[in-house]
Write a structure and sequence with these properties.
The complex is a heterodimer of chains A (643) and B (202).
Chain A lengths: L2 H4 L5 H23 L3 H9 L4 H30 L9 H35 L8 H19 L28 H29 L12 H33 L12 H34 L7 H15 L14 H13 L1 H15 L8 H24 L1 H7 L3 H31 L5 H27 L16 H31 L38 H7 L12 E3 L5 H17 L3 H19 L6 E3 L1 H11 L1
Antiparallel strand pairs in A: 1-2
Helix pairs in contact in A: 4-5, 4-6, 4-17, 5-6, 5-7, 5-9, 5-15, 6-7, 6-19, 7-8, 7-19, 8-9, 8-10, 9-10, 9-12, 9-13, 9-15, 10-12, 13-15, 13-16, 15-16, 16-17, 19-20
Chain B lengths: L16 H31 L9 H4 L2 H26 L3 H31 L8 H34 L3 H34 L1
The chains are: A mainly alpha (643), B mainly alpha (202).
Chain lengths: 643, 202
């Protein structure tokens, strides 16, 4: 292989990216060296098993990926603004919509939510860490390395271009001979390991690590949503693992699962992909529902309306999520009976979702509402998500779907649910729990600027797409003719996209601005919160709780405040904490090396990487480190400085 | 390490908080493994019969070899149970003996399976032959790879047992690996029935 096959060449955009990647790397290395921060980086971050720090790293990585996916989106909008534009050619456009979709779902939405889950869940249930802190670090680093492997594709070897769904035969070896598709398969496979481990970890954490007295039906609703999400992860992700492995076998070792020849069956891929893929969209929406519930309840200053109905509706949604996958390909040849079945199960999902919408509205009813940034995002979510949901029911009608299928109507629908559901929730949750992560609030004024600009931009970008779809504009086309008459709505959409970009930049500036100028927290309870995470000190000590809290009902911290128990002093006891470990980051680096070798079919490299992975597992198995105890004196010292 | 009271009858592996958490977590992991093998079985059934004019399973499958494999693996599950029985009685010697026999049976199973695979490939049925054989080799191969991983894993635990004796930690590891081993046995029963028996009669 020659160097100009290894590196992607010939496109000025890519050269620009090469330069900026190189400059960023040099800059990071320079700063770390100049300020002598390498050791700090290693001991405080790379080897940490603290759920709060891992959560912060998840969120930071997700914001980076939001940037990457957002740039992809703006490139697409630039190309589609006017008819017959020549900004991107068809191949480049295909690569960009593929990486945009994959990155936004797998490497942005999920890690953002999992990051917030990491920060919040142990605090909400009154625990000192997750059930398996070491495994939690493995989860983060495998996600991170998988994401990096996927992301380097556009400068080394070429991006995948078969869409985030990677339907075969398009994604097969004959029609996608470049290594791009291998990046997709290996990047997702490695990141998927981390997600599965996260599912197991949070399931056990929530079932077994709750503070004494917290019954299942007294758990904060975000904890409930995370528990249900974990169950979905445990049963959905193995399907993706297998589907990716089978396509990898097809492409690298000549098997015939999805090929057109020798008995292979392309539709098998579509089914396997969506048996994972549909539960996946609930993996990214249920935690969002949980966050909105917490935020609406806090800022309406009322206990959540219909708590039990909220829990049961999430359980029903989780069950139904495994029974609707065919609605993603109603037009791909299933019979009338099959389509009817999946049409009905799909429409059924609107019922529990509607229950939740009404519960949020009734929580707001007669509440003394505080319009914080987090609350604004939650309030905007309700009408926007309803638009997405209603158009979803339209798409669920199999017969009507033959009209909407593969048009911008669908694109508008899923952006309405994914952005106003998941992305609004990420922003809302980020503002809400930011004090628990960084011990200061995000600036409210800048936050509200982001909110108004982003929400206006979002609706301006995606609402016209419904009409573009009804006017017949197909998705995934890289250009259209002037005679099609789609230009004016496309111009509006691009303007909306630019506004969203500006909103994002203000958010990033807000992070910097608040780091510099926001007053540091002193109480640990900036929003007059209801659940246990607000009972921790500011900043949150690494052991979270000096005393394990006692829970006497739903909204445990609210009750404690009302009963005057919030700041009780009791004698401390030594606290057991897990030790840091370098194994997760090293193991994941070997995963990266092995995956990179597989991408290029350099089998010596993939085998060497796998041996590295196994070696780190053996090292871990022989490690009998049992963590350490934080002494009473140290706790006292900590508690004096933090309060 | 933990303040929870336990009766003297509580098995060693359940006495520590870590032990209880890890055992529950492993059960959930086995749930994920069920989803994984279910997907492989579903793939196998979908692609069943799609031999593209190449060799069909009924021509190649032989009762004898498969029965031997089944006998070896099922017996190994029994001896694995005996090993846990001796562990519960704090007999390190009994534990070593029966785990050793379990590993030997597992290794012989792998030997027969590899021999079987090589035989099929010689007869012209390989991963690349047709969709059916792709599904066959990946389903049985994934199971075989799990058995190989299990053998290596349990061997490592034996070394740790030798170094440290029976502690809540080592007994937890033995117990969890035994859950894994029994699980592979269950999967094999489905492979034996759904792949080999059906493949021979259909």
């Amino acid at each position: 292989m020659k160097w100009d096959e290894f590196f992607v060449t010939g496109d000025p955009l890519i050269y620009g990216a090469d330069v900026s990647i190189a400059l960023t790397l040099i800059g990071v290395i320079f700063v770390l060296t100049y300020f002598k921060k390498w050791k700090w980086l290693w001991t405080e971050w790379l080897t940490t098993v603290d759920h709060k720090k891992l959560g912060i790293m998840y969120v930071m990585a997700a914001v980076m990926m939001l940037f990457r996916g957002g740039v992809d989106a703006l490139l697409m909008r630039a190309q589609l603004t006017v008819p017959d534009a020549g900004f991107l050619d068809s191949t480049h456009y295909n690569e960009i919509f593929t990486t945009h979709g994959t990155i936004m779902i797998i490497f942005m939405a999920m890690p953002f939510l999992i990051g917030l889950m990491n920060v919040v869940i142990p605090l909400q249930i009154g625990a000192r860490d997750v059930a398996y802190p070491f495994l939690n670090a493995v989860s983060f680093w495998t996600f991170f390395m998988g994401a990096m492997l996927f992301n380097i594709s556009f400068v080394i070897g070429g991006s995948p271009s078969a869409g985030w769904t990677s339907y075969v035969p398009l994604a097969g070896l004959e029609l996608s001979p470049s290594v791009g598709q291998n990046y997709y398969l290996l990047g997702l496979q490695i990141a998927g390991i981390g997600t599965l481990l996260t599912g197991i970890n949070f399931l056990v954490t929530i079932l077994k690590m709750r503070a004494p007295g917290m019954k299942l039906m007294q758990m904060p609703i975000f904890t409930w949503s995370s528990l249900i999400t974990s169950v979905i992860i445990v049963f959905a992700f193995p399907v993706l693992t297998v589907a990716l492995a089978l396509m990898t076998f097809d492409r690298l070792f000549g098997s015939h699962f999805f090929t057109l020849m020798d008995g292979g069956m392309p539709m098998l891929w579509a089914n396997l992909f969506w048996i994972w893929g549909h539960p996946e969209v609930y993996i990214v929406i249920l935690p969002a529902f949980g966050m909105f519930s917490e935020i609406i309840s806090t800022f309406a200053r009322k206990t959540l309306f219909g708590y039990k109905a909220m829990v049961y509706s999430m359980v029903v949604i989780a069950g139904l999520s495994f029974l609707v996958w065919v609605h993603h390909f109603f037009t791909m040849g299933a019979g009338g009976a099959v389509n009817s079945f999946f049409s009905i199960t799909t429409m059924l999902i609107a019922v529990p979702t509607g229950v939740k919408i009404f519960n949020w509205l009734f929580t707001l009813y007669k509440g003394r509402i505080k319009f914080t940034t987090a609350m604004l995002w939650s309030l905007a979510f309700i009408p926007n998500f309803v638009i997405g949901g209603v158009t979803g029911v339209m798409l669920a009608m199999a017969a009507a779907d033959y009209q909407y299928h593969n048009t911008y109507f669908l694109v508008a629908h899923f952006h309405y649910v994914l952005i106003s559901g998941t992305v609004y929730a990420c922003f809302a949750g980020l503002h809400f729990w930011y004090p628990k992560m960084f011990n200061h609030r995000l600036n409210e004024k800048l936050g509200k600027w982001t909110f108004w600009i982003f929400v206006a931009g979002f609706n301006l970008c995606f609402f016209p797409m419904y009409f573009l779809g009804l006017a017949g504009m197909p998705r995934r086309v890289y250009t259209y003719g002037a005679a099609d008459g789609w230009m004016s709505l496309n111009v509006l959409a691009t303007m909306g996209g630019v506004l969203m970009g500006i909103g994002f930049l203000i958010l990033v500036y807000n992070i910097y601005f608040s780091f510099r100028y926001s007053p540091r927290e002193t109480t640990g309870d900036p929003w007059d919160g209801r659940t246990l995470e607000w009972a921790t000190a500011a900043p949150v000590p690494f052991y979270n709780f000096a005393h394990v809290p006692e829970v006497k009902g739903h909204d445990a911290y609210w009750i404690a405040k009302k009963e005057g128990r919030a700041k009780e002093k009791k004698p401390y006891k030594p606290i057991h904490m897990p030790s840091n470990s370098g194994v997760p980051v090293i193991m994941s680096t070997f995963f990266f090396i092995s995956g990179f070798g597989m991408v290029f079919s350099w089998h010596w490299m993939s085998i060497a990487g796998l041996i590295g992975v196994l070696a780190t597992m053996v090292i871990r198995s022989f490690d009998y480190d049992k963590g350490f105890y934080v002494s009473v004196e140290e706790i006292e010292k900590h508690e004096q400085t933090t309060e | 390490m933990d303040a929870v009271e336990h009766s003297p009858n509580t098995p060693l592996e359940y006495q520590s908080e870590t032990g209880r958490l890890n055992i529950l977590g492993f059960w959930i992991f086995l749930g994920a493994e069920i989803a994984l093998f279910s997907t492989l079985f579903a793939t196998y059934f979908v692609l069943d019969g799609r031999t593209a004019g190449g060799p069909v399973p009924a021509e190649l499958f032989e009762v004898k070899g498969v029965l031997i494999e089944t006998f070896l693996l099922l017996t190994s599950s029994f001896t694995c149970g005996l090993a846990i029985h001796y562990m519960r009685r704090h007999s390190l010697k009994g534990l070593f003996l029966w785990i050793g026999i379990t590993l030997a049976l597992g290794l012989s199973f792998l030997g027969f399976e590899i021999y079987e695979f090589v035989h099929y490939i010689h007869e012209g049925a390989a991963l690349t032959t047709s969709a059916y054989w792709s599904a066959f080799f990946v389903l049985t191969g994934t199971h075989g790879a799990h058995v190989a991983m299990g053998i290596a894993w349990i061997a490592l635990i034996l070394i740790q047992l030798k170094q440290r004796g029976l502690t809540p930690d080592t007994s937890r590891k033995v117990f969890i690996s035994s859950l894994y081993w029994h699980f592979l046995d269950v999967v094999w029963i489905f492979i034996f029935t759904a792949v080999y028996l059906l493949g021979m009669v259909m």
